[in-house]
Amino acid sequence: MQCDDIMSSETMLYMPEYDALGNLCTRVIERDSEYISKLAPTKLMDYNLRYFGSSLRGAFDGSKMILGKLNKNPIVVHERSNIVWFPSKSFIRPECQWFAVHHIQDYEAMDKKNTKVIFMNGYEITVDLSFRSFEYRIQRAYLLKYKLEKRTKHLLVQYDQGRVFPRMTNNVIFDEDVKNDRNKTVL
Q1: 44 has a pLDDT exceeding 80
Q2: 28: closest CA among 15, 40, 46?
Q3: pTM of the model
Q4: Cβ(48)–Cβ(5) below 8 Å
């Protein structure tokens, strides 16, 4: 693995590509660059999910819990950053492409079986998927984002924001301490 294999919020697309030896690799398309990873697209996605504390199986299980049992469910790659990706086909198929939904600006039918995808930075790709199927995957990705935000919103309690366990701090003044004594300083 290399540092490049870790996705960022700039990563838009994972496309399968074979190297000169016939190994399935991934062309990683980012907002301002692209490169080839030696990992296959689904393995690269699983690697990134594990890096961020999950796994592909866990992401699909979570998506299934929220959206119900579907084929080709979108997945949450990084919850805090609200990064959701979806596969173009079943993730076990070598021709599966992975899309970061937040980078897609528009899409249009090329013919009955192909859709042109336009990303925010102007990059375009034609995917072997009907317009309706592609649109359905995008809608499911946004539904997953919405439902996840709705479920986690109640966990954000205003009182606990900014609080740290006292045993983990040393001479820290909390907001209410500052309000009570504005002249107090930390040693």
Answers
A1: yes
A2: 15
A3: 0.80
A4: yes
β-pairing verdict for 75-78 and 83-87: antiparallel
Cα distance from N-terminal residue to C-terminal residue, the chain: 45
Model pLDDT, residue 79: 77
Helix axes 131-153, 56-67, angle to 10 degrees: 90
CA atoms within 13 A on the CB side of 77: 25
Beta bridge partners of 109: 115
Percent of the chain at pLDDT above 90? 67
Q: Is 96 left (phi over 0), alpha (psi -120 to 50) or beta?
A: beta
Question: Tokens at residue 117, please?
Answer: 């995808």
